[in-house]
Every structure is written in C-alpha cells, then in structure tokens.
Amino acid sequence: xxxxxxxxxxxxxxxxxxxxxxxxxxxxxxxxxxxxxxxxxxxxxxxxxxxxxxxxxxxxxxxxxxxxxxxxxxxxxxxxxxxxxxxxxxxxxxxxxxxxxxxxxxxxxxxxxxxxxxxxxxxxxxxxxxxxxxxxxxxxxxxxxxxxxxxxxxxxxxxxxxxxxxxxxxxxxxxxxxxxxxxxxxxxxxxxxxxxxxxxxxxxxxxxxxxxxxxxxxxxxxxxxxxxxxxxxxxxxxxxxxxxxxxxxxxxxxxxxxxxxxxxxxxxxxxxxxxxxxxxxxxxxxxxxxxxxxxxxxxxxxxxxxxxxxxxxxxxxxxxxxxxxxxxxxxxxxxxxxxxxxxxxxxxxxxxxxxxxxxxxxxxxxxxxxxxxxxxxxxxxxxxxxx
Length: 387
Known about the structure:
Number of strands: 13
Order of helices and strands: EHHEHEHEHEHEHEHEHHEHEHEHEHEHHH
Strand order of the largest sheet: 3-2-1-4-5-6-7
CATH topology of the largest domain: Rossmann fold
Shape: elongated
Radius of gyration: 22 Å
C-alpha cells in the first residue's frame, strides 16, 4: 500500500472557491483520502456551508490557523511552521500563489523534505498596480520554479504559456483540466419549464444566457452592447421575443454599472433578467436557449464547460482555453467585439430548435469525453504519487 502522505496548503476553506472545489472533488472521490491527505488553511472557517465543512463531513483532517489580519502573522507563522513539521508529509501541495511561496520557503526546514506541488489556477497579473503583492509573488515564484523536486499543475494551457512568458520553468508543468459533473449539469425539460415560468418567460421567447460575477474580466459590457444591437434591430413586436439573462454575484438591474449599461443601450428591464447570485445555476442554465461567454480573460472556462454539459449551443470569446474546450470555430469570436458577438448570437437564433439541440448534444458529448471527473482524478493520482 502506498503510504505517501500529502499536506494541502490553502488560503481559505470558507465558501466555494474554484481551487478549493477542485480539491474537494478530488478528495471526495478517494475512499482512503482521510488516511493519506490532510488540509491546512491559513484562515479560519466562517459559519455556514463551505468547502471546509464538506471536507470535515467526509472525514478529511482539516486544520485552521486563523490568520485573518497582519497582527496575526507572528503567531500564525509560528503555528504554520509547527504544523508543517508535525505533518511529516511526503508531498506538500500548495494551492495558489501565496501558499506556493510559503511552502517553497519553508520546505528546507522540514525534516521530511517533501516533494513540492504548486497549483496555479489563473493567468498572471501583468500590471503591478492591479494586485501589487500578488504581482511580486508571481515574479518570486518564477525565480523559484526550477526547484528539482517541484511539480507545477495548472488547469489550462493558457496559464502554462502565460507563466512561461514570465520566466517560469515549465519542464515539470502539467495541465490537468477541471472536471465537470455531467450529472449535475445536464439537460432537463422539467427544470427548464419551471425556471422559465418562475421568471415570466414564455416558450416562444429566445433566452441568451450568461453566468459570472460582476468583474471586468467577464466582459458583460460587450454582451449587453451585443444584446442592444440585436434588440434594436428587431421590430417592436419581435423585441419581446428576446431575453438576456445573466446570473452572478453583483449582476442586478439596480446595480449602478448595469443600470448605466441598460440606459446607454436603451434596453427595457422587461427584456433582461439580471438575477444576482443564485445557488441553482444548473437548473437556471436549462432555461437558456444559447449560452454566451463574453470574457476578456480566462484560464480554464468552467462555466462554458458546464453550459456545454447542459447541452446548450455555446458562443465564446477566444481567451484562455475557451477555443480548446468548445472546439467549434463557428462560435468562437474575438474578445471586445460586440458586433461579432451579436452576429454569432443571431446565427444560433436563426437556426431551428432541432439544429440547436443537435449542437447542444454534441457539446455535451465533448465535455463527457474530455472533462469527466475520472480523467481529473487519475491525473491527480499520478501527481500525488498514488497511481
């Protein structure tokens, strides 16, 4: 039996962050995870549902250091050092930049001299003023990336290539795409009817859907501009037949940024459904007639793959690994191109319902073939030395 023990170092297990969810999915699939994996979080666990709670429910040992403020650092770093030494882990698995830097700097002082794994889950910041501390950390890690016992894992080829351009050693860099659960994200006619009924959307209305929080990277101004072009190109009667629906934290009609965009493009509130954060995104996706990813920056596009698994025809900007995931040049457009986005939406809207269903089923089959959980689990097993 393989007795290599892995310590996962993370920043925060409160909530459901992307990196933490990947860790949860992996450990949840391992019947013996509690024997070989331990998780150490720099911050404390906040009340409510979270990845930390889910890990503990599965019996995974989880330790919190409660480093919340600068004043906590002296005590917290001492506790961190003691926890790392006590773990005697064979593998030190650091999720995201700050844990990667901490793990690499502390490793020489650990008696077990563990193998290092960095999990890099995003594109690097290119401007210092965006995130100064993260920018500096990224550059320091580039200098440390030639460590002989280091493996680097990212969820996209785009992340690997972008970091290579910063001087990262990619000799031992592996791309393990995120996994999509095709049982959680799947077409469901009953859910489609329920969601559309609850949102006062009729069967004959065409719903253009998007999912993402209100941040510049998601390119929502371009999406709303594209919708405005489509909307005003229709007769008054036909305008009622198109709906733009966006789900995500901060995406609401009364949010100043969205209110301004609706005013600029003269789009009535009756033609949009800006739903804010929801916990039923898999159900809501069934209400869409097509899915649009208007991002101007991505690494691995989770939500695009989730929409594909829901058997939706999809359109995406050509950023990150989006073109690789979708693999349909008809519906790949440049970022910052509202007119091209509007044209692509019109193309899907113009074809028959049966043709849209055929495209959607092809998309779902592609996700199942390439991004099934089993593929991700096998790849991580190899990385953690348990193949």
